[in-house]
Amino acid sequence: MTVSYVTFHLGDGLYGIEVLRVQEVLTEQALTRVPLAPPEVAGLVNLRGQVVTAVDLRRRLGLPPREEGLPTTDLVVRVGDEVVALLVDSIGDVVEVSEDDLEPPPDTLSGPMADLITGACQLPDRLLMPLDATRTVALGSRA
Length: 143
Fold this sequence. Notes:
One of its GO terms (cellular component) is cytosol. InterPro entries: CheW, CheW-like_dom_sf, CheW-lke_dom. The protein is mainly β. It has three helices and ten strands; from the N terminus they run βββββαβββαββα. A hairpin with a 2-residue loop joins strand 4 (41-47) and strand 5 (50-56). It is globular, with a radius of gyration of 15 Å.
């Protein structure tokens, strides 16, 4: 059996979210900051009248912040009834991965990444690390 992932870049890493979880991909949207929100909450975005939480995925994964002025892409995902915009550096391709090709997450992962990455798959040109969408959008859980 194969699983399709929408891939995206954060720094040098290639990550993925299952296609069935992705609602849409948008260019950078205007953010409204939320006072006293967790640090990974970048703000709120208005998607055609629906107010959606925007999560800075770099912060969520414990990665260094992106350089000032570099654009982001909003990967809008749906988990149950919740819609969340994940801020990523750029979108890659949709790739199909055989479940047999998915390895366990690398032992070298630590912090939030160790909790959110579900596995690893060697693609022809780089390593893909799929994320658990449910745990990624659940801001109350911290590694």
